[in-house]
Each structure stands twice: as C-alpha cells, then as structure tokens.
Design a protein that fits this description.
2 domains; eight-stranded mixed sheet; 260 residues; alpha/beta; 37% helix; 8 strands
Amino acid sequence: MNNIKINTRHGWLRWWPKKGLKAILDPENARIETFLLEQSAQLPKGSLVLDAGAGKCPYKYIFKELDYQSTDMPGGFYDQPHDFECELHDIPKDDNTYDAVVLTQVLEHVPDPWATLSEICRVLKPGGKLLLSAPLNGPLHGEPWHYFQFIHHGLNQLGEKTGFQISEIEKVGGAFWLIGKRLPVAFKKLLKQYDPFRAKKRGQNVLFCILMTLILLPTWFVLYLPSAYIIRPLFYWLDYLDREKSFTTGYTAVFVKSQQ
C-alpha cells in the first residue's frame, strides 16, 4: 500500500473566499466547486468529460469550454435530462473513451464501489483523471441508496485495487466546518419532522403536528437562526485553527489511470 500524502490546505478557502458569504455559510460545497474549477483548468482544450451520477448537473457550467456529457441512474431522483442513463458499474461506452470523469458525492450511493471505480477506469483514457469528492461525517441521505462513508486510507485502497493512483487528496475542513454545518440542520429538523403539510404523507396526525410546530417554533428564533447566521460563520474562521482535521466533512481527490 502506497503512503498517501494529504494536501495540508485541508479545504481552506481563504479568510474571505471568492464566493463570499455563500462559501462561508456552506464551505463544504464551496470547496468541492473550487476543486472542480481548479481541476477543469488543467484539462486540455477539447477534453471529453463525463459527469457520472450528475443529478441536476450543478457543475455543468464549470466544463462549458470542454466536451461535457452527463449520466445518472435510470429513474433517478431528478427530472434533469442527461446524455444517457446507466448504472455506474455498467457504463455503455467503449474502453478509453473519456479524458476525465467527475464523481461528486456519489460513491457512497453505489452498492459496489469497487465495480464502479473499475468501470470508470475502463472508460477513461490512459492518464485520464477521475475527479472525486466523497463525504465522511455527513447525515444519512438518499436512503435506502446510502451505503458507505469513506476516509483517505479506504479511498487509497479502492484506487489501488481498481487501476488508479491518487495524485492528490484533500480533507474538506475540520471539526468547526462540520459542526457549523450540521448544528443548524439539527435544529431545523426539530420543526421539519412535524411539518403539518407533510403529515398525511408521513402517516402523522395533522393536529398533533400543528401543536408540535407551535411548541417548537421558538427554537427557530432561539436556536436555528443564531446557529445558522452567527455560529456557522464564526466556525468557518475558527476551523483554520484545527490543524489535524480528524473530524473532516469529507474529501476531494484526483485519481489517475495508469498510462499502461
């Protein structure tokens, strides 16, 4: 197993990021976007890029100067049209087709990460890049299609076993970015779980949900708003002091297919 060197920037977006307050309020997604911007600038003009598990294609604009294609699983979560649909362990393209593949916040949703990365390696040209992001300390989401969480050692093992080498990997923030993002969500969910407009769909009693909403409404002002718009920005800057980043939100990584 090769030793893996982690970028000591650890996702830091500067004291005042380019995206300003938007990035400070959501540094995890801001780092992923910045990672893709950095990597797209290194791809040769005319590169053929596949956005795998693209969902709503939020990063399509980043690759507008390149030959961009997107795919998602048949009957996915969104109505977004794609160039084609497929399961990621069975991509209907020839060997050595793409110069780069984008896989952002998707690997945790595939039942067989080994098969998925092997298939991506197959459709990449020799020397082609997989631009990947994967969460670690995130909430359950997209159930029942949420199978795994990953750390850098596991990603390295996956890469080595599927024909890749990791050329760079970076933690996306530390404990303060993690808490700053998750704390407001926890308070918000107190109200959301009793949303009277969703009560019937969830099999809940509507009157009970209305009562609980009224009881919990003060938490919106006392807990949610301060945590979202005071604590979260403060924790963005405090995260710079967390040098270890053992409570990271996740990783960005560049996997490179062997030239052979």
